[in-house]
Specification:
Elements (H helix, E strand, L loop, with lengths): L3 E5 L3 H13 L4 E5 L3 H12 L10 E4 L10 E4 L14 H17 L5 E4 L4 H9 L5 E4 L3 H15 L6 E2 L2 E2 L7 E2 L5 E2 L2 E2 L6 H22 L4 H15 L4 E7 L12 E8 L2 E4 L7 H22 L1
Parallel strand pairs: 1-2, 1-4, 2-3, 4-5, 5-6
Antiparallel strand pairs: 7-10, 8-9, 10-11, 12-13, 13-14
Helix pairs in contact: 1-7, 3-4, 4-8, 5-6, 5-7
Length: 302
């Protein structure tokens, strides 16, 4: 691998992804592309000015879609108008923007892995996967799972890194928290929380994105780090388990859509992990989430 990453869209999120990648030294070359060339120049110049203080010297530069020809990773953050209330309302605007970019991806024969952050993430990931001949992974519930772990940790007074658990399904209101499999230092979290605490944590996890966007206009730090975790696992061939949006291809009885499930991330992309042992309620909620996404896909396909 050349360890070359191209970031498409240099708003708050795209620029922040490049910043984390530069600081971590994961990539050898970082290329930024934005339709606003004035902003592109400013972001790249500002990012490059960090390099004298970093241990790993990463090449950071502006580029063009021709850079996709030999890129290992493309990060899609370009989107339409951000909606504070419901990610699904962003669909038509995001598709309009994506449709302007995909011909360039196809023309330059991108063969790496595209990481999709654009919302609604599951639907846009599916849409892109139908249009290009490359591996596509959506960040999906990687962010929701991080939010869940952080809020459980806050409630229990523990380190977030000591909480293990997943949100699955849509990166949105219909996501499912897999409480039955959640652990804190090996202990079942359900034994440590009251029903009231669980309900509050679930509400805060699901509404976190909208609440943050209402307060500051966008989200960038949590989702940026979620994306970088996936990128690092691919470039480092880590075989790391992360929840992300993929076609389950029969796992959990689902296929033909993109939805968040735990996957093994390596240089081969995202391979769905063995199915979690869901309760009947969790399985029903996950199926309902998938059914909603399938209905949205039918509308996109019309």
């Amino acid at each position: 691998m050349k360890r070359k990453v191209v970031v498409i869209g240099l708003g708050h999120l795209g620029a922040h992804v490049m910043e984390i990648l530069a600081i971590s030294g994961i990539a050898n070359e970082l290329v930024g592309i934005d339709y606003n060339k004035k902003k592109e120049w400013g972001e790249i110049r500002d990012l490059a000015d960090m390099m004298p203080y970093l241990g790993k010297q990463t090449l950071i530069r502006s580029g063009s879609y021709e850079d996709l020809a030999d890129a290992d990773i493309a990060v899609m953050t370009a989107c339409g108008k951000i909606c504070d209330e419901d990610r699904l309302q962003e669909l038509s605007g995001s598709i309009a923007v994506i449709d302007q970019i995909l011909p360039e991806v196809q023309k330059n024969h991108f063969k790496g892995t595209m990481i999709v952050l654009t919302n609604p993430c599951d639907l846009i990931s599916w849409y892109i996967s139908q249009k290009i001949d490359a591996d596509v992974i959506g960040t999906g519930t990687a962010l929701d799972s991080a939010r869940l772990r952080a809020r459980v940790a806050e409630t229990l007074g523990l380190a977030p890194s000591d909480i293990q658990g997943y949100c699955i399904g849509e990166h949105g209101d219909s996501q499912t928290i897999v409480w039955s499999q959640m652990r804190a230092g090996g202990l079942p979290v359900e034994q440590l929380l009251t029903e009231e605490q669980k309900a509050q944590i679930e509400k805060e996890t699901i509404t976190a994105g909208c609440e943050i966007a209402l307060h500051k206009g966008s989200t960038e730090f949590g989702i940026g780090m979620s994306a970088v975790q996936i990128i690092q696992a691919i470039l480092g061939d880590e075989h790391k388990i992360l929840p992300c949006s993929v076609d389950p291809k029969g796992k959990y009885g689902q296929s033909g859509l993109y939805t968040g499930i735990p996957c093994i991330i390596s240089k081969e992309g995202a391979t769905p992990l063995k199915e979690l042992d869901l309760t009947e309620e969790e399985k029903n909620r996950f199926d309902q989430s998938c059914e909603m996404l399938k209905n949205m896909i039918k509308k996109i396909s019309c």
